[in-house]
Write a structure and sequence with these properties.
This protein has 105 residues and is of the alpha+beta class. The chain has 2 domains: 1-42, no CATH class; 43-105, no CATH class. The protein has 3 helices and 4 strands, in the order E-H-E-H-E-E-H. The chain has helices at 17-23, 37-42, 76-86; strands spanning 2-5, 31-34, 50-53, 59-63. The strands form 2 sheets. The chain has a two-stranded parallel ribbon.
Length: 105
């Protein structure tokens, strides 16, 4: 999981409660993304955007994991990612993303 951090921020700025929660997920790795370099590389443009790749490196899901800003609970994004992780075929391969923009226009 990438966590945006401006280059001007102190090292501990990004190490928030959300960072610690992400690190507690088995198999997950939190990575500091200074000035959004990794986000640009993958084409992510919104906070909360989720990109899931299969073992061959093909993008199989691109979207949000919430049905609306601040929403908690069932939604097409979570359903799709869970289906893909189980090896099933999801009903959606993309969903809207509700978050803040990562780039200034």
């Amino acid at each position: 999981m990438l966590f945006y951090a401006p280059s001007s921020a102190l090292k501990d700025w990004v190490r928030s409660d959300l960072w610690r929660a992400a690190e507690s997920i088995p198999g997950a790795h939190a990575i500091e993304d200074r000035d959004g370099a990794w986000a640009r590389r993958f084409g992510a443009s919104t906070s909360g955007q989720t990109l899931l790749y299969n073992p061959r490196g093909h993008l199989v899901f691109n979207g949000g994991l919430t049905a609306a800003r601040g929403h908690v609970g069932d939604n097409f994004g979570v359903d799709a990612v869970m289906a893909l992780l189980r090896g099933d075929h999801p009903s959606h391969r993309s969903t809207p993303v509700f978050g803040c923009g990562l780039r200034e226009e």
